[in-house]
Design brief:
113 residues, mainly alpha, 7 helices, 0% strand
């Protein structure tokens, strides 16, 4: 018992601290901000792919033009982060689902795309 006690006193352990972003990057997962952005962009893409006469598409485009609500401001900031210049460009990209999915799921810490 005494030998064990002496050994544990001499052993020094070093705790490794790893940032969440490093772990998420290693696993290929988005941050919480990235995940929320993906969900917002997914919903907007869904609304923009609807027919031009559809009320949800009309309302989304109107709100994006006004940018008066906090949700719309988040969406415009997301568009800026993803280098989407205008509402028309977002609408054009949303028509091409594979491209839209690739762009909207891009994470800040990932270099996969």
């Amino acid at each position: 018992m005494e030998i064990y006690a002496k050994q544990t006193k001499t052993l020094k352990t070093k705790t490794l601290h790893t940032k969440k972003t490093d772990i998420l990057t290693l696993l290929g997962l988005p941050t919480m901000h990235g995940l929320l952005r993906q969900k917002r962009m997914r919903w907007v893409g869904h609304a923009l792919r609807r027919a031009d006469s559809d009320l949800s598409k009309v309302e989304v485009k109107k709100e994006m033009a006004l940018s008066s609500k906090p949700w719309t401001k988040c969406l415009l900031r997301d568009m800026k982060e993803l280098n989407i210049k205008s509402i028309k460009a977002l609408e054009d990209i949303s028509e091409r689902r594979e491209l839209f999915r690739k762009i909207s799921t891009r994470t800040r810490y990932s270099s996969a795309y």
